[in-house]
Amino acid sequence: MILQLPSILSEGTKIALAPAVLASLHKNLRSLKEQAAAAASGSIAVSGPLQMGF
Prior knowledge:
By secondary structure, this protein is mainly α. The chain is 50% helix and 0% strand. The chain has helices at 5-10, 18-38. The longest helix has 21 residues, at 18-38. The chain starts with a helix and ends in a 16-residue tail after the last helix.
């Protein structure tokens, strides 16, 4: 499906990306919460595909 996505979108077909994006975000936030609760030193390491510009 991932390899077909560009051709599907180029044909003008509408698809819902929000469920996949929200699921990934929820997974990352859950991981962050678990790491924060387990961190004894007060520092945590988080990795994920989300990019934020500040």
